[in-house]
Write a structure and sequence with these properties.
Elements: H1 87-100, H2 102-119, H3 124-136, H4 141-177, H5 184-187, H6 193-212, H7 216-224, H8 228-235, H9 239-252, H10 254-273, H11 279-298
Helix pairs in contact: 1-11, 2-4, 2-11, 3-4, 4-6, 4-8, 4-11, 6-7, 6-8, 6-9, 8-9, 10-11
């Protein structure tokens, strides 16, 4: 046999092992012949066969590679840690988001003021003039009662529309909290607008009852129901669950929330003293700061 003649690996070679009886061992069907120990893989061999391991399943939501469900326990959701916050953190966040989108927020506050001015025609002074006109006999008692009722209904409608606008502003602030720049299109993009209206009616009724309780109930509603619209817009709760959930959330984090509300109240007073022009800055600042606080307390996404 010459030097260039290929040798059959299944023939016995001089000095080599004798193949077992029954013929040479055949490679297993369905797979490549494993190379001998110490041999380098040949480029003519096909790709290495991997042992079957079954279809790969994606990890379940909430597993090691997925963020936890919104508001769920454990871990952080978003780029900021969840949990208590400081007043300085909330105000700094609100100021950064306001200055980055100031034109939208100034125009939004202007819209709110215009709507409130249109529907606030009835005031305590107007009621006094109507009563005096009735006493002088200039108009009948029935006409005076009709005018008063019409003014009250107009005020109620105005308060309802203003409350819904406030909820839409909270929707925009929550988008800002998540890192999205609020726009006019996103302002009205609310899936549960009907529930927002029901929440506004519930808050108006609670405020009226609180006003009858020597004003103390009104203060309690202002402090503890501050996250009602947040719960409706961001967590898709119904009006009653959002109202009671806000009470529980503030109650569990009363110190941080109350200090923030106190700081925002003082800032809005300063804004009102500057001929009212400062409110174009302080109202958006307060809305954005409260959205930041809500997301931090509920473990929602917060932009860095």
């Amino acid at each position: 046999m010459t030097e260039n003649t290929p040798q059959n690996p299944y023939e016995p070679q001089p000095g080599g092992p004798t193949p077992p009886e029954g013929g040479p061992a055949q490679p297993p069907s369905g797979g490549a012949t494993p190379p001998p120990a110490g041999a380098s893989p040949s480029p003519y061999d096909g790709p290495a066969q991997q042992p079957p391991s079954g279809p790969t399943q994606p990890p379940a939501y909430g597993g090691p590679t997925q963020p936890p469900a919104y508001g769920g326990p454990g871990g952080t959701y978003g780029t900021q840690p969840s949990g208590p916050f400081s007043v300085g953190e909330a105000l700094s966040f609100g100021w950064r988001r306001f200055t980055g989108n100031w034109l939208f927020w100034v125009l939004f506050v202007l819209l709110t003021f215009v709507v409130g001015a249109i529907f606030s025609s009835g005031s305590f002074g107007d009621y006094q003039e109507i009563n005096e006109a009735v006493m002088r006999g200039d108009i009948s008692a029935q006409a005076g009662a009709g005018v008063s009722a019409g003014s009250s209904l107009l005020q109620l409608i105005g308060s309802l529309i203003t409350s819904v606008l406030s909820a839409l502003g909270i929707n925009a602030a929550l988008r800002e909290a998540g890192g999205e720049k609020a726009t006019w299109g996103a302002l009205f993009r609310v899936n549960n607008l009907g529930m927002v209206i029901l929440a506004a009616l519930l808050l108006l009724a609670a405020s009226f009852v609180g006003l009858l309780l020597c004003g103390l109930g009104l203060i309690a509603v202002a402090i503890f129901a501050v996250f009602t619209y947040h719960n409706v817009v961001d967590r898709n709760l119904n009006a009653w669950e959002a109202f009671t959930g806000s009470f529980r959330l503030v109650g569990k984090n009363f110190g941080a929330v109350f200090l923030l509300e106190l700081a925002l109240f003082g800032i809005n007073i300063v804004g009102a003293l500057l001929c009212g022009l400062g409110l174009f800055v302080t109202i958006p600042l307060a809305t954005l700061a409260l959205a930041f606080a809500f997301r931090r307390l509920t473990g929602g996404p917060v932009a860095a």
